[in-house]
Structure formats: structure tokens, C-alpha cells
Request: fold
Amino acid sequence: MSRYLRKRADEIYEGSKSVESLLNEIIDDTIKKIFGKETTGVIYNYLKKEFSLELQDILRKPEAFSTGLKKLIGAKAMALEKAIVENLYSKLQLEREEKRDFTFSDHIKFILSHVPRCKLAAEEVT
Reply:
């Protein structure tokens, strides 16, 4: 585990933010950087309406997130998922698990299993 991640986990643990909130923030920031604030809102509204999925649910239901994105933006969904995964690994300073058949869901499970003080267990991810 990196010094940065250990420090951030300690800061979060001592503060009011959870590790899950940090991960959700990274996901949200990535989507906003790619699509802008307004379009991100449209994406979240679609996911909520069609899949009962909100930002805080993405870590628990990454497959539903992937499905929703693919239905909404088609092949561009894979590029967005890749950007989210890259930002999560980068900002958490985790070594990326490079497996050709790894899905977005597989990466989320891997990340959750390597983040200290994360209350959301990788086994809970669907």
C-alpha cells in the first residue's frame, strides 16, 4: 500500500469522509472532466430513472453501471470506464492489475480489496 493511500485513508478515517466517498468523488470527477457538469447530470438522471442507480451505488453495482452506460452512450462507455479505472488506480497510487479480460467490475473489486479501511467488501460488488 502506498504512503499516499495510507495517509488519505487516515485523513478520511479521522474526518467525516468515508473511503467510499473518496472513491465516488474520483468517479464523479472523471465523468465531469469528460462530459462536463450538465451532461454528467443527464447521465446520472438516466441511470437513476432506468436502473435505479445513483453515484453512491456504482461501487456496489458496477455491472449495472456498465450496462446503463452502454445503453446510453454506446461504445463510448468503454472509454469512460477505462478513464474512471485509470483515475482510481492513479489517485489511489495502486499498481494497475493488467489482465486483458478484466471488466470494469473486476477492476472495482480489485481496487476495493486493496483500499485500507474500506467498509465495502469486494464480495458485496455485483
About this structure: The chain has a mean pLDDT of 82. DSSP finds five helices and no strands in the chain. The two ends are 25 Å apart (CA to CA). The CA atoms of residues 60 and 125 lie 4 Å apart.
